[in-house]
Each structure stands twice: as structure tokens, then as C-alpha cells.
Amino acid sequence: MGYFKEVSSASWAFCEGLWITLRYLFKPSVTVQYPTEKLVPYERFRGLLLFDAATCIACGLCAKACPSACIALEAQTHPETKKRVPKAEWYSLDLGKCNFCGLCQEACPTKPKSVWHSLDYELAFSTRDDMVRCWKPGFPLAGRVWDPVQKAFRDPESHISVREVQARI
Ligand code: SF4
Ligand code: SF4
User: Fold this and answer.
1) Whose CA is nearest to atom 8 of ligand 2?
2) I need a surface site. Which of 47, 56, 59, 147 has the fewest CB within 10 A?
3) pLDDT tens digits, one per residue of 66-97
4) How many alpha carbons fall within 13 Å on the CB side of residue 143?
């Protein structure tokens, strides 16, 4: 008797499984074939931080607002008067310390924002050095990395692709 009960319960579970599969077979798919197919996150998604040296006024408000103390910058100085110029000489951001809170973007007074979160979520780093992004005027928006061996800036080794640069408001 126990044997038949077991067979009947297993058959019932099997049919139930098939029924669930059949129900979902004709529904639209909610998954994508990552990495060949990629979802674009919502507009307010906080991905990789980008920086634009062309619009930055080197006010330092982003560095003051940052709770993780991961932003550093230096303003340019006039070659003759040595007075501070509202342009960044260099800007750096340690993504290893960043908690993606968005406070730097919020504090930035320029329009459009000079530091802002992109929609890029593919943040894989092979070394700690790769986490520290540096910008100088003319550098790409995703920044570059200082190579202590070559004593030069290089593009990050990690796979970073800024596919979508969201509107900066
Ligand atoms: S997102 Fe937050 S933690 Fe990261 S740099 Fe900006 S203020 Fe700092
Ligand atoms: S990124 Fe924005 S807040 Fe930071 S120094 Fe430049 S202008 Fe100021």
C-alpha cells in the first residue's frame, strides 16, 4: 500500500511540475542572456562614477560631502599670479572606498554635474590600483589609473564599458 501511495504522490508532483513549466512556456521571458544581452538600469541607478574636467570648477564640495573620504583634487593655479583658477589640475576617486551614496553628485554645483553616477554596473577590478581612478583635463570620463611601475597613467585593466552616459542635470 505504501509503495502505491509513494508512486501516486511522485506522479502528482511530476504532473504539477509539468503544469508549472507549461504555464510559463507561453509567458514573455523576464531573464536575459547575460553577458551577450544586457539590461539598461533605471535612470536613477548609481553605477560607476564619471568625472568631467571640462565643467569642474574645483570647488571641492564633492570631497567635503563624501562620507568615505575617497575624493581628492587640486585646483589649477595661474602660472604668473599663482592664484587659484576654477579648473581641476587633477582629480582622483578611490572606488574601493566608495559606497555609491551619490552625495558627491548631489553636492556638485555645476550644471551639468561634473561628477555623476553612470549606469555602468560592470565593476570588476583585478587589482587595488585599478580601483583608484584619476582624471586630468582631457582624460576620458571613466578616468585612468596610475601605473607605479611604468610611472605613467594607463587605461584600467578591468573591464569597464561606459555604454550609457545618462543625462546630467
Ligand atoms: S558616491 Fe558617496 S562614497 Fe562614493 S565618492 Fe561619492 S560621496 Fe563618496
Ligand atoms: S566635481 Fe563638482 S563639486 Fe567636485 S570639485 Fe568639481 S565642481 Fe566642485
Assistant:
1) 59
2) 147
3) 999 999 999 999 999 999 999 999 999 999 99
4) 24
